[in-house]
Amino acid sequence: MSSQPVPAPAPPLSRREQILAAAAELFARHGFHGVGIDDIGAAVGISGPALYRHFRSKDAMLGEMLTSISEILLEGGQSRAQRHRQPRSLLAELVRFQVDFALDNPALITVQERNLGNLTDPDRRRVRALQRRYVEVWVQAIQDVVEGIDEPSARAAAHAVFGLINSTPHSRYLDRGQMAALLRRMALAALTGTRE
């Protein structure tokens, strides 16, 4: 009888993280303007006004949520670019990372896609700057793999693949593993014209 190591349980979420997770689910389901502070409080078992101990406003929650998503994606993209020196390997890892993030965080992807316009101007500028840096990682990876592709085409290709990947986390046709494999194949085929 072999003993497999048991993965350590994930640390419990802090109250602040619980609030952001609940807010993401509610914003994804009902839209930013369709959710009140009391709704978010009820989702985590506290009064709406008690949320103000953690966030100054609902706008601040959204700002932190979208900034955090953008920071996670940028850090993930940059760390893969540092670890994978072979261009095709890097592109495959970027695709895998984006697919996994989208499938594991469907509410966050939905909120990110629908609510950029609801951010305050400073938060919107910060999120946009982070997103541009993440796209640049992809643009470079695409140009390193796809011979002769120019920068505007590589940028358009990156955004098209984000659209493909981010539009499908709510699909009920395939289980998570099947959907991840399908999205990876489709994204790589779209970017390179091959099935890797």
Automatic annotation (TrEMBL):
Secretion signal span: none
PROSITE patterns from the UniProt entry: HTH_TETR_2
Keyword DNA-binding: yes
DNA-binding region ranges: 36-55
A Pfam family the protein falls into: TetR_N
Listed Gene3D superfamilies: Homeodomain-like, Tetracycline Repressor, domain 2
Residues that span the membrane, as ranges: none
Keyword tags: DNA-binding
Domain HTH tetR-type as annotated: residue spans: 13-73
PANTHER family: HTH-TYPE TRANSCRIPTIONAL REGULATOR RUTR, TRANSCRIPTIONAL REPRESSOR MCE3R
Protein name as annotated: Transcriptional regulator
Record lineage: Bacteria, Bacillati, Actinomycetota, Actinomycetes, Pseudonocardiales
